[in-house]
Please model this.
Amino acid sequence: MRCGCHPPGWDDSRLRGHSSLQGALVAELQVKREKGSMIAGISVDHMREGPEGIEIISRLDVVEVAKDFRGRARTTLIPRPHDGDMPTVGEARKWPRTLTVFRNALTEAILASGIEHKIPDGPKVKAALLGDTREAFYRTCILDHEPGITAEQRQDSKRKALQRAIEKAQALNLIGATSFPDGRQLLWLTVDL
Model:
């Protein structure tokens, strides 16, 4: 049996190429991945003697497979089981507006003093220490306060706002985080901006 790979035509309802391709098909599978998403789906659009409409959703993990002649990592994507749904267009990259200050603070910390971190069974990422992210967040976070609030209460409000932002970003899988036995904590972006 021969396999071929053909991109979609000018619309997603048909294949590119001659119409005789359709007559020779045993099965037509469609791979979908939104730009920037690490979730991919494979659907069975047509199968001559089998079920159609089946969709398999996978999480894509980046794995280093070799080094090039300059010592740079060569990577590939490995599909892993995923229980969720495919993200819709734009959903994979969307940061809520409420996390804008936090996203900017984390990005600033990574650019200013980021360190390489190897995710267990995953890729190397640029990460920032929680302390560096906290400094950037406190510098740019502006909260509405009632008159007469003390500096200590203002600092406590910023601390709580940062904690809520980290929890929400982790819940949305926008950032990764890890802690070390020495008390250091690292944060990194799981999606590009």
